[in-house]
Amino acid sequence: MRVLKRFSKTSTGQKLIGFIFYFITKLISHSIRWEYFEQSKKSKIFDNKHKYIFCCWHNKLFLGPHLLPRNRVINALQSSHSDGMITSLAFQYLGMNVILGSSKKGGMQAFRRMVKRLQLGESIAITPDGPKGPKEKVKEGIIKLAQMTNTPIIPLVWATRKFKIINSWDNFVLPYPFSKGIYSFGKPIYIEKKIDINKFELKRLNLENEIKRLTRILESKIN
Hints:
The chain is of the alpha/beta class. The protein has 7 helices and 9 strands, in the order H-H-E-H-E-E-H-E-H-E-H-E-E-E-E-H. It has a single domain, classed as 3-Layer(aba) Sandwich (Glycerol-3-phosphate (1)-acyltransferase). Helix 4 (82-93) links the parallel strand 3 (74-78) and strand 4. The protein is globular and about 55 Å long.
């Protein structure tokens, strides 16, 4: 076990594990019988004329990236710790760009890079409660990013009929292959540039509650 742990922290080990993670998630995603629950027009989300900040809970990271549109440049924010690096490599195999950073390490630099990418007309993908929680609590960063760049936030939610919950801080969800699945892009959430602290907090709570609301709807429909 110690040898495997050391290997997983090497560049070669991370590349190998990253590819395996990507390959497994791709196989499972393609095996699921997906249904789209419309909150936003899928055609509008999937055209390449608009930039968005996509977000999903950290515990839905297993399949979330596979449901994002492929006809645009998407930059995924990921932690720079070893687990985050493995996920980052999997994202790159999916054709996404990766911006490394978190609230504790490289946060401001990563934030500036995301602002730059959005100014260039590219999109961003974020887990608003990652990388270490609290679970399903939206942090301020995504609201500030949307506010500064005048970019709408699009919640991404999915659920499958059969799944396993891992004993982790976020109760990470592992979907079973060949299950029935449902997913949805929520309605765009805009953040005005000039708002006071109270309204800023209200916007943060609105996003948090909207993701939870969509999650409840999809879970009830799939079951």
